């Protein structure tokens, strides 16, 4: 049962992320890296980003433990109470967004031209209208996660992305080249998408309310909520990681029209392996690490050894996959960028920038692998304050870079890399030197890194890597893609033959 559920969730997560990349591909085909692309990206992502920062992750951190062992009536009462708070709060926030749409647009898309200012203002209004549905979807997703309804949980985003891909395809074939009228069209599709997601989630949750009979007088007691301190740390812990790339792309927008879109596409090159490899490994390792930690006793070293084995396995696998993904991007970023975004109205010069900025962002996968495992351990031992501190430091690095004028795309990517590295140092420092000595398999981590560095040096020396200063197409593109796959496999093979750590991690 658990194997089936794990495979189903993995496949649905993979489908959701791939469809998300296809949405970006459709957006690139429809608008390229124009100012209208900047507007469309902000409008389509703002509702879910706000929901993710303010509630979605925090709800999982707070409500999942709160619901553990509770009755269905208690869970339903709590859910209904939180839903009321979210609806009223999101309606109030949406009203503020509508009232201050001009200032909000200037803050989020500072590089837009005067001719597109009205489009930006309209986009803020459409995003505000979609916000309540996005907030409620975050709560319902948390309940589906608690019920282990993986089909309902992950396929909800498939609904949204499918509708938006249809909208972008519709506009790319029938819309004007200037983008006139794009905002109202995409705004209508955005509302359809978020409400269809709610319909799907509600339909999946319909059996839950068959057991929700409880007296009105007891509803307040049943629906009690955790204290505000728990909510505060949960919001910070879940929201700060989502804020980093959002702030960076906003700074990038200040350099001119299309820069926000270009940075967004470049970040997608990094985000896909980050989510599907590094963060997935950390998530899958979480139960094993938690079980081993919970069973540790002073008189039983076997459970301490199990904790060490779980952490070392997760770290080895996450690091090896990070090095493999970085090798693929550093060897063939131009070809990958061309395949994903070189369609429709995308300019060749923008593809060059996407590839160059994505290559810089590839180095950030390495500290993020270390950070993902460290945060898993901190969550297990109940020291999430250090996780918040780590991400706050990373955000401070990005803010300082933007504040001193380092707003070019490659500069912001390097700022993100530095921020992630600083966060990883803080997170592992919070675990202590003795823990690092036990849990960090230096030899297992060293082999993939050395091979990664050697591959990058050799391919550039021999001229085998895609030229980031020119567009890649045709047979050269196919050759570059094979080089990407080969580089990733060589890195993984180095970890496989360097010692038993990677083999044990894959078997566990």
Descriptive account of the structure:
It is a multi-pass membrane protein. Involved in peptidoglycan biosynthesis. Transports lipid-linked peptidoglycan precursors from the inner to the outer leaflet of the cytoplasmic membrane. Its main location: membrane. With 508 residues, the protein is mainly α. The protein folds into two domains: 2-211, no CATH class; 237-507, no CATH class. The chain has helices at 2-31, 35-67, 72-99, 101-108, 117-146, 150-174, 182-205, 219-222, 228-253, 259-294, 301-341, 348-362, 365-380, 384-403, 409-431, 433-439, 442-462, 474-498, 500-507. The chain is globular, with a radius of gyration of 23 Å. It starts with a helix and ends with a helix.
Q: How many domains, in number, for the residues?
A: 2
Strand content: under 5%
What overall geometry do the principal axes of the alpha carbons give? globular
Class per helix and strand makeup: mainly alpha
Evaluate the radius of gyration. 23 Å
**Mean model confidence by pLDDT:** 85
- The strand count comes to 0
**Treating each run of at least 4 consecutive H or I residues as one helix, how many helices?**
19
Distance between the termini: 18 Å
Residue stretches low in confidence (pLDDT < 50, at least 5 long) are: 1-5, 213-222
> What proportion of the residues is helical, as a percent range?
over 70%
Task: Tell me about the largest β-sheet.
Answer: none
> What's the helix-strand series?
HHHHHHHHHHHHHHHHHHH
